[in-house]
């Protein structure tokens, strides 16, 4: 098992951001169709809730005429039929437009405004019978069947609960006066819509979580794939580590080359060593030209003593200066302590002698 994993056969690792971005560029993003359905249904209910009374007030007289003459074989007047048809279209078109806009907006928001035309290109796998059977009888197909059956059961239950109080009135509709027929069915129909939207909202939330979980699972990578991607994006890690070591060694050599010209080396006395250089003519304050800890501090002390650079032990000051960056001037709060050390060194320094 470990061998397979090292060979890159098992996808056990979460996808990297680069892998997700590449999949997104190819149009692979988690999109829930149930969310789009919920958005469309909610838009329809909102439009009906705000405009239904106005539409019924304009359409009701014409529809009553049709309902009252439903048993006759003679067609109504052509002008009345045209006006009524236009009125019905005036109701249907805004509802359809609202549903389409809401559904499209939900998809765009889920994809974060991704527009990928690659999905429109024909693919043989889409018309392959084997691929179709695999999608139909595979795990995802089974999930879709269970989801559809569960959704249908929830919708039927919710609709029954919604119209249970109106059921007696609905059974009497065939014997009611046509003038009161439409007003009698508005309330139960609206209850059905509300129940359907609520259930669809629950289904959409569950489906959105499932779609995102499935997408994250499908995007998983093997350890070898992550290593290959790291090499492609950042280069070989071994080479990069070697380059970093070379840079550190060169920077350290340049730093050590400045120790012989330092004014003084402040030590801990064993753990830290900080070399300071001060030129009263060119620099307003002493500068840190080298610093090190442990073995590097010992090396700085050796170079300083070999080149007759004074070495002064001051543990608090050495620790404070060690936290500063190389080739920077010391801050004002350390002026007094450093000035005392430099003055002391200038007074006592003799050719060939180090101050301990």
Features:
356 residues, mainly alpha, name from scop, 2 domains, four-stranded mixed β-sheet, 14 helices, 4 strands, disordered N terminus, disordered C terminus
Structure in words:
The protein is mostly helical and 356 residues long. The protein folds into two domains: 29-218, no CATH class; 256-348, secretion proteins EscU (name from scop). 66% of the residues lie in helices and 6% in strands. It has helices at 2-6, 17-25, 33-68, 78-110, 124-127, 129-137, 139-163, 167-171, 178-218, 223-234, 237-257, 295-306, 315-322, 335-348; strands at residues 264-267, 272-277, 287-293, 311-313. Strand 1 (264-267) and strand 2 (272-277) form a beta hairpin. It is elongated. The two termini are 63 Å apart.
Helix run count: 14
Helix/strand/pairing class, anyone?
mainly alpha
Number of strands: 4
Helix content: 55-70%
Taking the alpha carbons of the first and last residues, their distance comes to: 63 Å
How many domains make up the coordinates?
2
Percent of residues in beta strands? 5-15%
Instruction: Give the SSE order as H and E letters.
Output: HHHHHHHHHHHEEEHEHH
Roughly what is the average pLDDT, rounded to an integer?
79
Taking pLDDT < 50 over at least 5 consecutive residues as the criterion, the unreliable ranges are: 1-9, 352-356
General form = elongated
Radius of gyration: 41 Å
Instruction: Give a quick account of the main beta sheet: strands, pairing sense, barrel closure.
Output: 4 strands, mixed
Looking across the biggest beta sheet, what order are the strands in? 3-2-1-4
């Amino acid at each position: 098992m470990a061998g397979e994993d090292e060979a890159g056969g098992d996808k056990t690792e979460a996808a990297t951001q680069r892998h997700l971005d590449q999949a997104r560029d190819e149009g692979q993003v988690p999109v829930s169709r149930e969310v789009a359905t919920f958005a469309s249904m909610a838009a329809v209910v909102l439009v009906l809730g705000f405009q239904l009374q106005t539409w019924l007030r304009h359409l009701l007289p014409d529809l009553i005429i049709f309902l009252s003459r439903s048993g006759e074989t003679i067609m109504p007047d052509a002008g009345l039929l045209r006006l009524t048809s236009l009125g019905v279209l005036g109701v249907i078109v805004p509802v359809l437009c609202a549903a389409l806009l809401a559904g499209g907006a939900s998809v765009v928001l889920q994809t974060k405004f991704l527009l990928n035309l690659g999905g429109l290109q024909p693919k043989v796998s889409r018309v392959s019978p084997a691929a179709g059977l695999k999608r139909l009888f595979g795990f995802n197909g089974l999930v879709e069947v269970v989801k559809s059956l569960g959704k249908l059961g929830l919708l039927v239950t919710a609709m029954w609960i919604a119209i249970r109080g109106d059921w007696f009135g609905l059974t009497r509709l065939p014997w009611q006066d046509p003038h009161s027929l439409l007003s009698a069915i508005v309330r139960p129909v609206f209850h059905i819509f509300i129940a359907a939207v609520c259930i669809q909202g629950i289904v959409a939330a569950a489906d959105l979580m499932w779609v995102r979980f499935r997408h994250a699972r499908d995007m998983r990578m093997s350890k070898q794939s992550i290593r290959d991607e790291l090499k492609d994006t950042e280069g070989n890690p071994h080479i990069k580590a070697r380059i970093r070591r070379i840079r550190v060694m060169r920077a350290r050599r340049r730093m050590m080359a400045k120790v012989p010209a330092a004014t003084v080396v402040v030590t801990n006395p064993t753990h830290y060593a900080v070399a300071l250089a001060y030129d009263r003519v060119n620099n307003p304050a002493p500068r840190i030209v080298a610093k090190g800890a442990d073995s590097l501090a010992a090396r700085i002390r050796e170079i300083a003593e070999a080149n007759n650079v004074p070495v002064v032990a001051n543990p608090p000051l050495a620790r404070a200066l060690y936290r500063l960056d190389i080739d920077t001037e010391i801050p004002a709060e350390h002026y007094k302590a450093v000035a005392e050390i430099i003055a002391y060194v200038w007074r006592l320094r003799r050719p060939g002698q180090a101050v301990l």
